[in-house]
Amino acid sequence: MKIEESNIVETNDYRVIIYPASRPFTAKESKVITEKLYDFLSTWAAHGKPLSSSFKIEKNQFIVVCVDEEKEVASGCSIDALGAIMREIEQEFSLGLFDRMKASFVENGEVKTMKLQDFKKGLKSGKIPKNIEVFDFSKNTYIAFLSDFLLPLNRSWAGIYAE
Predict the structure, then answer these.
(1) In what helix (H) or strand (E) does residue 7 lie, and over which residues does it extend?
(2) What is the pLDDT of residues 8-54, one digit of tens each?
(3) Are 8 and 54 in contact, with CB atoms under 8 Å apart?
(4) Whole-angstrom Cα Rg for the chain
(5) Are 138 and 117 in contact (CB under 8 A)?
(6) DSSP 2
(7) Which residues are paired to 57 by β-bridges?
(8) What is the pLDDT of residue 2?
(9) DSSP β-bridge partners for residue 107
(10) Cβ–Cβ under 8 Å, residues 34 and 57
(11) How far apart are CA 119 and CA 127, in angstroms?
(12) Fewest CB atoms within 10 A around its CB: which of 44, 71, 123, 132?
């Protein structure tokens, strides 16, 4: 069962799982990812009970899956099933969806992603300005995603590297 986009209520605190790609999706990739996730989420269940869920592609680079756990809690097996479809997408397009050693940020209105070590070096050397905004993929609720997914560097997890 899916939460249709129009039914996502910003006051509901859905569980969120974010899969950040290392690069923007092509039009073909977005289409295939959307089709695969619609098909998967329409049958996604926990212990045989349908999960009320949805997804969106944010900034043409991040896949955000929402689950309404007030209706049914996503179990370990159902999360594993989601991971399996995401690994399938990862293998098909080489998107780096499971690589957590990267940083994504907005500089001059453009989303950029780089290896974490290069990001740290860039901040220290001044090649990356301090006025950037940084994405935080650790958000696990919809309200946290809405309020804190993209933060100014000094308020983000990466602020420690700017000192």
Answers:
(1) none
(2) 555 567 899 999 999 999 999 999 999 999 999 999 999 989 999 99
(3) yes
(4) 17
(5) no
(6) B
(7) 63
(8) 46
(9) 110
(10) yes
(11) 9
(12) 71
Closest CA to 106 of 97, 91, 119: 119
Residue type for position 58: E
Considering Cα of 133, then 138, then 141, then 144, what sign does the dihedral take?
negative
Q: How far apart are the first and last CA of the chain?
A: 46
CB atoms closer than 10 angstroms to residue 122: 19
What's the rounded Cα separation, in Å, for the pair 123 and 143? 29
Q: Which residue has the higher pLDDT, 6 or 48?
A: 48
Name residue 83's amino acid. Answer: G
| Greatest Cα pair distance in the chain | 53
- Contact at 8 Å (CB) between 40 and 2? no
DSSP string, 25-45: PPHHHHHHHHHHHHHHHHH-E
Q: What is the mean pLDDT of residues 144-152?
A: 91
Tokens of 18: 């974010």
CB 46 within 8 A of CB 74: yes
Of the candidates 118, 35, 44, the one whose C-alpha atom is nearest the C-alpha of residue 75 is 44
